[in-house]
Amino acid sequence: MASIRPRAVLALDQGTTSSRALVVGADGRILGRAQAEFPQHFPRPGWVEHDPEDLWRTTRDAARAAIAQAGMMPEAIGITNQRETVMLWDRRTGAPVGPAIVWQDRRTAPRCAELRAAGEAETLYRITGLVPDPYFSATKLEWLLREVARPRGIALTDLAAGTVDSWLIWRLTDGAVHATDHTNASRTMLCDIAAREWSAPLLERFGIPRELLPEIRPSAGTFGVAAAEHLGAALPILGVAGDQQAALWGQGCWRSGEGKNTYGTGAFLLLNTGRARPAGGRGILTTLACDAEGAPVYALESSIFVAGAAVQWLRDGLGLLDAARESEAMARAVPSTDGVYFVPALTGLGAPAWEPEARGTIVGLTRGTQRAHLVRAALEAMAYGTADVLETMRSVSGASLDLLRVDGGATFNDWLMQFQADVLGVPVERPDEIETTALGAAGLAGIAAGVWPDAAAFLAARRYQRFAPTGGENPARAGLGGWRRAVRATVSWARDRDG
Length: 499
Ligand code: ADP
What we know:
This protein has 499 residues and is of the alpha+beta class. It contains 17 helices and 23 strands.
């Protein structure tokens, strides 16, 4: 009897604390799944490093374990990764030169302050869509060249530089390919996002020779072939995207007006705005994402520093609940917060208020306030904070928002999802598979490999739970005014220092 060879794709998801691998079958099922953690290094306050060898080794080990669990060999590889983290290696040996400097690392804060003071912010924003911040790769790479490569006397021609995706591609292909994709490049603060090429003036500004950097390629396409010794068969690498853009793609947000929000410790929002470059500003960044074919489109990006962490704090700091999931029943147990608003600015406020000195604020307390009101106010804050960011994205860019797809731990809270849809007035959809980042990498590689004829076929197996906005009189949306008043109070408390 003739048998049809089952088809599958391997997704490698190299994250900040662990490397994961997923084997995704052509029918959309997850056939194999593995994860390997690696050490974090904090050599000084504010410094965060990874050993590039750890990133490679755990990625390869997770991949082998996922393939073994699936019991079949996938036919292509998709890579997604922690963004902005950057490293150097020796072209002759493939050995790392110094550590990988992680996106969280703040060592280049003085350099970024200098760039701002020199009036460079506007130029940087115009070219890269980003603001001078240690978060992005440029100043980290500048630091590695100055502090690591130069003292060791290594010739620049013997060095290669790159973000995590290009490091993994180099290792998988045994040094045959030095490439990255446009989404990862767009987070380096070295990429001209309109030309989708390294910016010559910025390379000069940061003292980075063009020859050091990988070639920028579309996210769905060829990135070389992984040598058979690594995973048991020679496999083409056909998809690459940074983690947030991979999640946006894996959520099926391929068209302008489609956005995703990840509700974890913090919240990460991306809104696809299509082919015309949107204006950003007010703390909203402009970046590159992918359309249904993996070709570059623009997206707006922003994050909320504290989202689910507010629930964690009510649990661990105040002991108001035993588990985060109890928050749902508590929120349902009261008809409203009774006028209480909790602005969880525990580590400052991001866009649109942008006040690093802000701290958490609870307003509207009365003798009648109970713990359920506070818990509900923490959940409402996630929805209101998300609405503020999306509203700002809409107003600075004129972009529309037609659909919000969601993932992350707090999205299991059905009450919160309904409240979010009501506040936004647009449908909120939660997929049955929350590994949206790895799915995005699998999908990009799978459409390039022909495992799926197109993006829609890739998502055909997914099911979404839809939370439609309540029409008519909608108390959730009506509460937005009170929330904004509470945010103004929070900002004013931070700024009013001399009575
Ligand atoms: P991360 O990847 O950032 O660690 P997760 O996606 O695992 O985060 O989500 C965990 C966060 O979600 C925690 O901050 C937790 O407080 C919150 N959370 C988890 N379950 C719920 C729930 N049912 N309702 C509200 N918040 C929740």
